[in-house]
Amino acid sequence: MTTKVASSKWLFILFPAISMMLGWGLRGHIGGGPFGAMIPGAMVALSIAMLLDLSPSATAVLMVFGVAGVGLGGEMTYGQTLGFLKNPETVWCGTAGTTLKGAVWGLLGGTVLSLGFIYRRISKRTIIYTFLILILGFFVGFKLINEPMVLYFSDPVKPRSESWAGLLFGGIFILTFLKFKLDGASFRLVLRFALWGMLGGGLGFGLGGFWMVLGSHLPNAVFTSWWKAMEFTFGFLFGSFLGYSSWKNRVYLKEFAGNDETQESHSGEKSINEFIVVLVVGLLIYWFISLLLNSIGNLSDASENTWLSGIFGAAALLENYAFAGLIMVAAVLYFPKSAWQIGITLTFCHAAIDLVRDFFPDTEKTSPFTIYFVIVFVMTAVVVLLTFYLSRKPNSIRNLFLLVIWSCIVVSFARLSVHPEKLDVSGLSLCQIVCGRFIVDIFFAVSAVVVSWIIVKVMPGRVEKSVEVL
After folding, report:
1. CA-wise closest residue to 344 among 383, 300, 305
2. Residues 91-104, buried b or exposed e (16+ Cβ, 10 A)?
3. Rounded Cα gap, residues 197 and 195, in angstroms
């Protein structure tokens, strides 16, 4: 048995910061939206779990809550808000918008992540109600502020539907609900993560946006990836504040999450259940709901009945990522052995979907009898099998974290072949190649190596017993 060494405060800050920075950059590169934000959610949760030396079972569940929580903010649109930063007359409006949206993102991410530490202390019903109340709050905030554009941070000439107020109300609703449902110690933990996440998200997005300002004043610079610099800054500061919150509350977190060294044997029946759960959840989130909403949209357009249109509009709430998060969390609450598969496989699955969508942009997405569907299924099946195998071996947390990192890196580099003309470097100087054309890919590779080095060499680690498969 190796000697466990307590991690320092700076490691608690920097490890989640670099992990989330990498994840956030990958999110914008290989899979945007809320499902793409599952990547940094998984990475920051895994890094915090390693720092706290949590057991594999506690780590797997925490990762699912991280994936569900950080993905929520991806519902917000912010492209036009960032566009305001390029104009001196609207720069402060843009900064206010990015800061507010980042703060909302961090508030929800920190809140839901913290539930992954205390899920054993509260009932399954309470957690499910939390997500349902989040959806209710989203609907109220959207209708009161976002839909009538009471406070609007996008271009009014080309309006886009904003949802930051919906998410903010959702966060307020669930914190109010949890105040009355949790014991004092548990709620204080949730509130601390909510506030530190809000601060990190607000500063990360608000300050990160100034890269866009700088880029607008350097139109002829070799480096042009200002948007990506913003994402890296957002992820770094968001992750660092979540890491700092973990360090501040490390004693309570280990107590709440538990650290049971024993692991149950997995029978063949339980292993089959694990595959069935991830298959059903994956098809439900990425295929069936999309197919259902498509049908609802067609019916809504064809209906002239106000009452029916209202029902169809309410049903459209299924498209909200909070509902997908509820499905993932509920699956883990009732089938905890599926947690690794839910957290890792479904995170990778959307990265595969996004990649294949770029290769086959005109292919029907809802039919299972297409090359699009087959390739996504095969790519995801490989990760399913690797997750199954590695989760039953020694050092499972370390190896599964590496699987998350490098599977996403592979997808990232595979995207280079979508536009092969970008590989043509004829006529470019070395500086233009390194600092311009491929700077983001180089940064991904270097960041992945750094995080992998921390995982393998810097972390004190734990010797985990392998699980005998009967």
Report:
1. 383
2. beebbebbbbbbbb
3. 5
